[in-house]
Amino acid sequence: MEQLAEAGNVTEASELMQAIDMLKEEQARLQDSLTQVDPAFRHEQRMEICDVCGAFSVPIEGHVRQVSHVEGKQHTGFVKLRQVLQDLKVQTRAQSYTASV
Ligand SMILES: [Zn+2]
Fold it and tell me: Could you list the residue range(s) of the whole structural domain that residue 19 is in?
């Protein structure tokens, strides 16, 4: 029974890690496409990709826009997802340590 629960956690953790990997690939792809944009346009717009959720942000639109992004559903969702993933990693490590002793 305990083994099942443990396996469930590991599966959940690896699924979350796969999701994160996919997002990282998507982020890399978006960054690649950004570098292909006309350099003059890129300089004007100063487009950036959010480190947390991968959304585009435009610093030129000012502080209020940034705050509303950080409080937005997509961004907060990713913050939670990363927290859950971190918790699962710690949990999984603790469990495998206990199992090996
Ligand atoms: Zn974000």
Answer: 2-96
Taking the centre of ligand 1 as the mean of its atom positions, its distance from the CA of residue 86, in whole angstroms, is 18
pLDDT given for residue 41 in this prediction: 55
- The answer to whether 69 and 55 have CB atoms below 8 angstroms apart is yes
- In sequence order, which ranges of 1-101 are alpha helices (DSSP H)? 2-35, 39-45, 63-70, 73-100
CA of 95 to the centre of ligand 1 (A): 32
Q: Give, as one character, the DSSP assignment of residue 61.
A: G
pTM of the model: 0.45
| Cα–ligand 1 centroid distance for 55 (angstroms) | 6
In a domain, 74, yes or no: yes
